[in-house]
């Protein structure tokens, strides 16, 4: 069966063409935007066109943050003015109309804020400049350990009366593209403007600060938060012949950041998810349990779609056997990570490892999942959360930046991911995770 | 030690910068060309700059084929003329000055030549149009099974008095770029002009032929074979402290096709090979056996450098323990293939598999090597031939085409390959392949 699945996908695969449509005919689709709505409508039609048994939308209110005009950043070093590439962090507030001009304090950790204290920070721009630790083989670990600067840095710095925060882009590479991403303010604290700066400009700023610690940075952005908007998760099902109320979910998120086309993040995820179900249908497979492809809305700046999906699952008393998330890029799949399996069940994966070996997706490891499916853990106890693990080397070169475009996706890599997920769904549907497989 | 090797490379890696120089400051370097000579001189200086114990050149006479003016191809379908992208196959002869215009016979295998016979083929253009079989997970297998059309197709067709041969580009993708590559004439047969056509144009030509089997194709090329030229392999050594006359070789080929920059084929191979040795030196490692980085010359259209290297090894009574070739692109390494190990020795690799697992290069399999090192098998019996196995999904999108440029190489993917090879060299140097490891 796995050979049939891979053959169907590598010969008749449609996800690459679908991704092209999503990226080029719709494009960026930040939650609450008109494009996000277009993507919902197109995604529903796509699932309907595949003849899934049931296709429906789940209503969900989502935040509506808009970037506004292109941001400006300038290093003012004496009489020299050096423009730098910046992009407001998602959910950030605007600067005052005339921007912010202030001296810059370069920090490498949030802890340093405490040691410096308000006297040295007040009125300054805090510049978090800790780069990725390149020694990690998996780049997600480098992202994980650098991420506090963007996620919590602005909120932490706000407590010391700083004027603004600039964060080194969370990227594996050194280039001129700022990488945006959500930051989280303290609900009780001050909201200060925060932006990402390209890694190249960050290096430049750091180097100039060493020579002239009193240089200034100017930056201006007029992003804003608008009222919440009604949006949707898109769901398509192949009904289970034996257990229609037991579910295996596979999904990614339909929303994307606004600087590019959301190709790898997470166009490949949604197109790969619907493709996994399409493959099984194309092969005439009649599942025992209900199989669902889900396009989650609002993973990037709120996770509202994932939360809503889990709430509805609990409300409708659905039994969720497993949920697979694909939100790590459409690169060659290496395997899957599993959360919620017992030690014995993890051992049972050895048989599947052998099945996956000819296809290269045989790293079946403990630990895995994703933001969209994680609320299911609490709401539908017993669910096994699974994350597709693609090769991670290129992901953070383009993640959340203007380079996240269709051209950076390889057809076969994307197809192998879809086939891997279809294979795993088939195995779970047939065997579950019991010792019997 | 492996952790140290990977850290050194991921933090201080130089191969990406070196590759940039090779691609952008030298560029294409087909055997016998002035650029190939520049690459030899620069390569030698690079090795010297790393302070290797001994850096030297090995003289080798190489073929000197030149493409000449850009080729022209036009489908003549009644009054409609459709230009198509073609590129002469390497080693092909020119067309007559005014080009060739003839009817086209589309074939999918060399066998079909026999069944059609001279009466149906004479004076026609044979168009080999069998695409890659996408069902192979490893794209090298698809390349292998389609390759006879380019390698032997023109020689086989020449026996039937055809006017010329057009070959569908050996590529995983459908686009407008022709992929060149060597063809081999029968020394006793007629040499007819042969060119590759882009996959997109091949599909178009095939589709038009179905409607109008008597359409004609025009193509023109003025490539030629010049007299052989003196060129060189570039060799750099770290001398063995215990066994200076026992060698572990790591290499790729310095020559490249002429349509682009030879980035993945095989700039990443040569820069990765010298980097593997640089890493060991940077860590202060004193090898037991002599470790050699080799830039082989003329892999693409003659293999003369590899043959010469093996001849000199035999002549100098060198004992070659192992030779590692990297000529499959600078993509994320998945492991190595080994030729020449006993069953017991293959079993012993299990221990190394465990060591490589955290770095993802743990597919250690039977069978592997490469064109440049294969002559060592006969000339230095007992040598273990090893090929680095990177992820293969993207390779044939760009292989031998105008897309084989630096921009398509990822820094970390290249670095992981270099670190994998340095690690393997270290393990072989310390433990050999005996049961004792």
Protein described:
The structure is a homodimer of 437-residue chains. With 437 residues, the first copy, chain A, is an alpha/beta fold. Chain A is built from 14 helices and 16 strands. Chain A has helices at residues 2-12, 15-26, 34-49, 111-121, 139-146, 148-151, 153-158, 199-211, 263-282, 304-315, 343-356, 375-379, 395-398, 411-431, and strands spanning 54-66, 72-77, 80-83, 86-88, 100-107, 125-128, 164-168, 194-197, 216-220, 224-238, 243-253, 289-296, 319-325, 333-339, 363-366, 384-390. In chain A, helix 2 (15-26) packs across helix 9 (263-282) and helix 9 (263-282) packs across helix 14. The longest helix of chain A has 21 residues, at 411-431. Chain A is elongated and about 70 Å long. The model of chain A has no long low-confidence stretch (mean pLDDT 97). At the A-B interface, helix 1 and helix 14 of A face helix 1 and helix 14 of B.
Summarize the structure.
Chain A has helices at residues 2-12, 15-26, 34-49, 111-121, 139-146, 148-151, 153-158, 199-211, 263-282, 304-315, 343-356, 375-379, 395-398, 411-431, and strands at residues 54-66, 72-77, 80-83, 86-88, 100-107, 125-128, 164-168, 194-197, 216-220, 224-238, 243-253, 289-296, 319-325, 333-339, 363-366, 384-390. Chain A is α/β, with parallel strands linked by helices. An eight-stranded mixed beta sheet of chain A has the order 1-10-12-11-13-16-14-15, with helices on both faces. Chain A has an eight-stranded mixed beta sheet with strand order 3-2-9-5-6-7-8-4.
């Amino acid at each position: 069966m796995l050979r049939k699945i891979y053959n169907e996908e590598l010969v008749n695969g449609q996800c690459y063409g679908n991704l092209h449509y999503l990226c080029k005919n719709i494009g960026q689709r930040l939650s609450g935007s008109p494009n996000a709505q277009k993507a919902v409508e197109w995604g529903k039609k796509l699932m309907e066109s595949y003849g899934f048994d049931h296709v429906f939308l789940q209503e969900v209110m989502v935040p509506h943050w808009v970037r506004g005009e292109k941001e400006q950043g300038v290093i003012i070093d004496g009489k020299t003015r050096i423009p730098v590439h910046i992009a407001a962090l998602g959910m950030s507030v605007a600067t005052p109309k005339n921007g912010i001009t202030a001296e810059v304090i370069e920090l490498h950790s949030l802890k340093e804020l405490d040691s410096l204290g308000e006297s040295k920070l007040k009125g300054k721009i805090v510049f978090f400049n800790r780069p990725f630790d390149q020694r990690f083989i998996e780049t997600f670990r480098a992202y994980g350990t650098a991420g506090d600067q963007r996620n919590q840095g602005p909120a932490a710095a706000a407590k010391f009366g700083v004027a603004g925060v600039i964060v080194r882009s969370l990227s594996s590479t050194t280039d001129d593209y700022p990488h945006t991403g959500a930051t989280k303010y303290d609900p009780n604290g001050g909201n200060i403007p925060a932006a990402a700066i390209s890694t190249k400009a960050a290096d430049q700023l750091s180097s100039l600060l060493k020579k002239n610690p009193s240089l200034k940075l100017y930056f201006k952005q007029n992003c804003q938060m608008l009222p919440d908007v009604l949006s949707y998760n898109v769901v398509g099902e192949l009904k289970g012949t034996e257990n229609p109320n037991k579910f295996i979910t596979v999904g990614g998120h339909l929303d994307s950041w606004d600087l590019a086309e959301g190709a790898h993040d997470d166009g490949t995820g949604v197109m790969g998810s619907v493709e996994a179900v399409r493959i099984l249908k194309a092969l005439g497979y009649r599942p025992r349990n209900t199989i669902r492809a889900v396009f989650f809305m609002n993973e990037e700046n709120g996770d509202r779609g994932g939360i809503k999906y889990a709430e509805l699952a609990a409300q409708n008393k659905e039994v969720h056997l497993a949920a697979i998330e694909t939100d790590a890029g459409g690169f060659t799949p290496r395997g899957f990570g599993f959360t919620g399996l017992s030690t014995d069940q993890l051992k049972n994966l050895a048989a599947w490892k052998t099945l996956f070996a000819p296809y290269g997706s045989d790293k079946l490891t403990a630990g895995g999942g994703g933001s969209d499916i994680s609320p299911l853990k609490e709401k539908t106890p017993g669910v096994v959360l699974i994350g597709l693990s693609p090769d991670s080397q290129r992901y953070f070169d383009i993640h959340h930046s203007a380079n996240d475009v269709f051209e950076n996706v390889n057809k076969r890599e994307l197809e192998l991911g879809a086939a891997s997920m279809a294979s795993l769904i088939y195995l779970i549907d047939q065997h579950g995770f019991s010792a019997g497989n």
